[in-house]
Write a structure and sequence with these properties.
Elements lengths: L5 E6 L4 E8 L2 E9 L11 H23 L8 E7 L3 H18 L3 E5 H7 L12 E6 L4 E8 L2 E7 L5 H11 L7 H8 L22 H12 L3 H6 L1 H27 L3 E5 L6 H14 L2 E3 L11 H12 L17
Parallel strand pairs: 1-4, 4-5, 6-9, 9-10
Antiparallel strand pairs: 1-2, 2-3, 6-7, 7-8
Helix pairs in contact: 1-2, 3-10, 4-5, 4-6, 5-8, 8-9
Length: 333
């Protein structure tokens, strides 16, 4: 009988220090500590993020183990985010994972951040069947990925400039909203009219995206309005710009579905928490008879549960890392 594996996952690619424990392929704890210090700078400061990870990582790992009711000695392997991400934060997570794995004499598993986001769809039931398409939308990535297997993925379309999550945050900043602003746009849009204002969308060849143009158009729109106008019409502005961004994502996704013939769709990444995107994707699924999978909210934004579950699958293939494994800020899938 195969031993039930207990794996610790560690995520530190940006400004979330996270740890999670999986046991027998099930997530039994998931702890995330956010870094509020970046709010006053309007974005993540890499050096400050790395220092915060150094402070947070031991308490977060201890909390994950306590929540799961496991001692360190019960661990069978440790998974960590190898990249992509910010180098300093990645190094904090990888160095801690290496030291702990070495001290315990257990395998080390390096995890690709985007692969982990995709496989977050395998944390809960029901799970997707291969092959499927995954729309990965976050602050750093906007991609449509063909998922052939747990460890076999191919990018079919990607952004040529900004990621959609970055566009959300920069648009929020132009409106005077605090960082991170994407969630606030979603919040205010709940009470707004998505047809109140017309914003242009960008059309790229193939299945690629571009969000720099819509950012520029929005900046010009805001500059032409008074602060009182923006505040008074905030809900309508948020609903209108959000509708355009989501439409740009789903138009490309629909094109890929039509070209590939694959109608099993998954969503992943921090922007997968956007309520309008989730709602519109579900409506498309009903209209076109797609089968759609969307992770629970805690598994959309950066978290370690997705790292732990990915490490479980990589452990099956004995895909282990070494103490010489390098952190990779740029890491193609």
């Amino acid at each position: 009988m195969q031993k039930q594996l207990t794996i610790l996952g560690i995520e530190s690619s940006c400004d979330e220090t996270a740890a999670s424990v999986s046991h027998d392929g099930k997530i039994v704890s998931n702890v995330v500590m956010s870094q509020l210090i970046h709010q006053k700078y309007g974005g993540v400061v890499p050096e400050l993020a790395a220092r915060a990870h150094e402070t947070n990582i031991i308490p977060v790992v201890n909390a994950a183990l306590e929540q799961a009711n496991f001692e360190k000695s019960a661990l069978d392997a440790i998974g960590f985010t190898q990249g992509p991400g910010l180098l300093g934060p990645l190094l904090v997570g990888s160095c801690f994972a290496k030291a702990l794995a070495f001290s315990l004499g257990i395998p080390l598993i390096a995890v690709h951040h985007i692969q982990a986001h995709v496989l977050a769809n395998f944390i809960d039931d029901p799970k997707p069947t291969f092959p499927f398409l995954c729309l990965v939308v976050s602050g750093g990535h906007t991609q449509i990925i063909l998922v052939k297997d747990y460890c076999a993925m191919e990018i079919l379309g990607t952004t040529q400039d900004d990621a959609v999550g970055e566009a959300f945050d920069k648009i929020a900043h132009l409106m005077g909203l605090p960082y991170p602003g994407g969630a606030l746009i979603d919040h205010y849009a709940q009470e707004g009219d998505p047809n109140a204002f017309a914003f242009p969308s960008t059309h790229m060849p193939n299945f690629d995206f571009s969000f720099s143009g819509i950012k520029t158009a929005f900046a010009l729109f805001i500059r032409s309005k008074t602060s009182e106008f923006v505040l008074t019409n905030r809900a309508d502005i948020c609903a209108s710009i959000q509708a355009v961004l989501v439409r740009m994502l789903l138009v490309k996704l629909t094109q890929v579905v039509q070209k590939s013939g694959i109608s099993t769709i998954a969503l992943a990444g921090g922007v997968a928490a956007n309520s309008h995107l989730r709602q519109q994707l579900k409506q498309l699924a009903i209209q076109h008879h797609w089968t759609v999978f969307i992770p629970a909210m805690p598994y959309c934004t950066d978290n370690a549960a997705m790292v732990a579950i990915t490490a479980c699958y990589k452990h099956q293939f004995k895909d282990f890392a070494s103490l010489k494994t390098k952190s990779l800020p740029r890491y193609p899938i």
